[in-house]
Amino acid sequence: MKCMFQENIGSVVMEVQENEFVCYTPPSEIPGTVRLSLLSDSGKRIQSDLLFEYIPDLLAHSLFPSSGPSTSSSEVAVRGEYLPLNGSVKCVFGGQDTTGLVMTSSYMRCITPVSRQVGTIPFSLRIGKIAVGTPLKYEFVEAPQVFGMIPSQGPAEGGTRVLLYGAGFDVGQGIRCKFGLEDESESMAQISSSTALHCISRPGKAQNLTIGIGNSVIGFTFTKTPFELLEVMRIFRVYPTKVPVNRDTQITIEENRVTNHYILLREPVGSFKKNMAMFRVPYHGLR
């Protein structure tokens, strides 16, 4: 008994059990659907209504991004050829199968798994039970962690150089800073070492914002403690404008908005009034 795929004869049928056979397909140069039949040892052809489809060899050309954080899942775009639109395609990272969503015959999306280790692994696809190898690799990298910041507040006009200290800042992917979840104006971080980097605050209204560091490849990690943008104090008048150098002297400062987040010279020596606060100028002696 042999299998026939249209007019092509396959390998000898292997009988697994009663009424069940295994056929091995012959090669075909042309993709398409063929009718499956059986050919008995006596040469009698047993027709069937079963159809078999030859599909072109699936090809995967590129992954973007080709690296991502090991501690969380992220989306990867796969570009290729002959991706099946009507089949169940799985993405395989190393030996882990993950969700795959075919968008077109040349584009699909994959979700990366969480990995316990960093490093490069092979990438492949699986259609049903068929594994399709590719020459592509994917790299798991360590996501940056933030432990704290100095300072934790600055003027809403922006320009404050904020030191973030943590771990994993040397991922080599171009770390960027963003102030707040909805900030679309990312800026390049100034990396000092794997445990320290600086971000420059951007102008905005007075509010509390978490600082995110990362990029589109590894995602963004946000600080647990927010950075506080403060309304800028604009001084209208200071009096007296001259003080003796041989003793401490109390002065009064008037501005458009006195806020207790700002400390000028020393702590205020009196209670706040509307648009007014009093400070003590320390004794410095003659110079």
Automatic annotation (TrEMBL):
One of its GO terms (cellular component) is plasma membrane. One of its GO terms (molecular function) is semaphorin receptor activity. CDD domains: IPT. GO terms for biological process: negative regulation of cell adhesion; regulation of cell migration; regulation of cell shape. Transmembrane segments: none annotated. Residues 57-141, 143-223 form the IPT/TIG domain. InterPro entries: Ig-like_fold (IPR013783), Ig_E-set (IPR014756), IPT_dom (IPR002909), Plexin (IPR031148). This is IPT/TIG domain-containing protein.
